[in-house]
Write a structure and sequence with these properties.
The chain is α/β, with parallel strands linked by helices. It has helices at residues 3-23, 49-64, 76-85, 92-98, 153-168, 184-198, 205-209, 270-277, 281-287, 307-321, 330-337, 354-357, and strands at residues 32-36, 40-41, 69-71, 106-119, 122-135, 140-150, 214-216, 224-229, 232-236, 254-258, 261-264, 324-326, 389-395, 404-405, 416-419, 436-438, 447-448, 452-454. Strands 1, 2, 3, 4, 5 and 6 form a six-stranded mixed sheet that branches. The protein has a five-stranded antiparallel sheet with strand order 7-8-11-18-12. A hairpin with a 7-residue loop joins strand 7 (214-216) and strand 8. Helix 2 (49-64) crosses helix 5 (153-168). The longest helix has 21 residues, at 3-23. The protein starts with a helix and ends with a strand.
């Protein structure tokens, strides 16, 4: 063989071998690194450490069992300590900046809470697991999934496998990681925790006094997360942080006291609307005699919905679940938008910086966007500033100086209240105290809603 032929033979092998390796399923430069953050515990009293370790380890194992992914371990306590020493908060975005040097691709932030439920008259415990996936560079949220599991090991593992599969877009092969749970370090604490759920300790007033968020399935896969808002008092209207943007109808500022309630984490999406009401976004557009579409997709907020149809959604959901679902009162809406009893006094819902929390006329591209793409507020509620206007139950009317308890607005009127601003309005309209209104029959291309549920 001549040197020339040998050269071209070797060159052909260099080109062919990588293709063969890929065809045979070998992972060549395709493995992506995932960091799994520590469990965020949303419970009082806090969960057992063994249970939290078990859930986090199950997430790690599910990622490891996913083709094309490997888990990269970092010390999250060190990361948070460095942020604290530099005067920065441990937000998801700041943590992503700190772990860039690890050369990982994604970071998962899991949260766990306990929900006490009564099913067919029998008290029980449900574990709510919520995982947010962030792309480390440039530090942006990719997607979020959540699931509800029974308080037993197999149910938790199955829920995590489904969640990780959806997050990573792969099928989880749990055979690779099953043995982890045979080790005493995770098995023993979880067995102790499991026994706790069967004992009367959780029948004590602790959880009935501090209810947790839950996911409404409604028997149709609705997957609507409801966030618990603990009652309290607040100053409603043009409080000082609203500045010169405040309008005259936001005054006088007055004290409002509210009982506890639940509010939807997100605006009602197009998928959720179709599951309950049966009509598509295109059919709603046709009802409005409109031409334009302002974002189409299961995760986009529903729009072209008038106040009367939003009320019908609440009635239908109530009938399907046996619970009391309603449009929020204007006071309930503003209290939740301000962050309830965790409020930090922001101008917008969750921030002083409008672009951090809202889709509005300067960044929306003249369309709605998927829910939960911007930062949540202090209660973990999304999109209360921007994306779509949200109908409230109240008739639009003037404020008074008097202190009020659970107000429901004017006794009568011509217009219903809209709150939150939208994709086609400026930043001033997205403030937590801003008020708007329209006739109950109007279907606007920027009109949507979210629901509340009374305990």
């Amino acid at each position: 063989m001549t040197r020339t032929k040998l050269f071209f033979l070797l060159l052909g092998m260099a080109v062919l071998l990588p293709s063969v390796a890929v065809a045979q399923g070998f992972r060549i430069f395709a493995t992506q690194k995932v960091i799994v953050a520590d469990i965020k515990d949303n419970n009082y009293p806090p969960l057992d450490d063994g249970l939290k370790k078990m859930i986090r380890q199950s997430i790690v194992d599910a990622c490891t069992a996913s083709d094309g992914y490997e888990v990269f371990e970092v010390n999250m306590n060190d990361i948070k300590r460095q942020l604290q020493n530099s005067g920065k908060s441990d937000t998801f975005e700041n943590i992503c900046k700190m772990v860039k040097k690890a050369n990982a691709d994604y970071i998962l932030f899991p949260k766990v809470s306990i929900n006490k439920k009564v099913v067919a008259g029998v008290p029980g415990i449900k574990i709510l697991i919520d995982v947010e996936k962030y792309r480390i560079d440039p530090g942006e949220r990719v997607n979020t999934v959540f699931a509800e599991a029974d308080a037993d090991q197999s149910s938790v593992m199955a829920a995590i496998d489904r969640m990780v599969g959806e997050l990573l877009g792969v099928k989880v092969n749990r055979q690779m990681s099953q043995q982890t749970y045979q080790q005493p370090s995770y098995q023993q604490p979880y067995q102790q925790q499991q026994q706790t759920y069967q004992q009367p300790s959780y029948q004590q007033p602790t959880y009935s006094q501090t209810p947790q968020s839950y996911v409404e399935d409604a028997g149709c896969g609705l997957n609507m997360k409801m966030v618990y808002v603990e009652g309290g008092s607040f100053r409603m209207g043009a409080t000082p942080e609203q500045g010169s943007d405040a309008d005259s109808d936001e005054s006088p500022v007055h004290t409002v006291r509210l009982d506890s309630y639940y509010i939807a984490e997100c605006e009602v999406t197009q998928a959720q609307w179709e599951k309950i009401m049966g009509t598509t976004i295109y059919q709603q557009r046709d009802k409005a005699n409109a031409q334009s579409m302002r974002g189409v997709g299961d995760n986009n907020p529903m729009y072209y919905v008038n106040w009367e149809e939003a009320q019908a959604f609440c009635r239908e959901l109530s009938a399907m679940t046996g619970k009391t679902y309603l449009l929020p009162t204007e006071a309930q809406w503003e209290y939740a938008a301000r962050g309830g009893n965790k409020s930090r006094g922001y101008k917008y819902s969750g921030s002083y910086a409008i672009d951090a929390v809202a889709w509005y006329d300067s960044n929306s591209g003249s369309a709605t966007h998927w829910v939960k793409q911007k930062r949540a507020n202090e209660l973990g509620i999304y999109d209360m500033s921007g994306n779509v206007w949200e109908w409230c139950s109240d008739w639009y009317g003037s404020y008074s100086y008097s202190e009020q308890s659970n107000p429901t607005g004017a006794g009568s009127g011509q217009y219903r209240v809209l709150r939150g601003g939208s994709w086609n309005r400026n930043a001033g309209n997205c403030r937590v105290s801003n008020r708007a209104n329209d006739t109950p029959s109007d279907r606007g291309s920027s009109y949507g809603f979210r629901v509340v549920c009374l305990p």
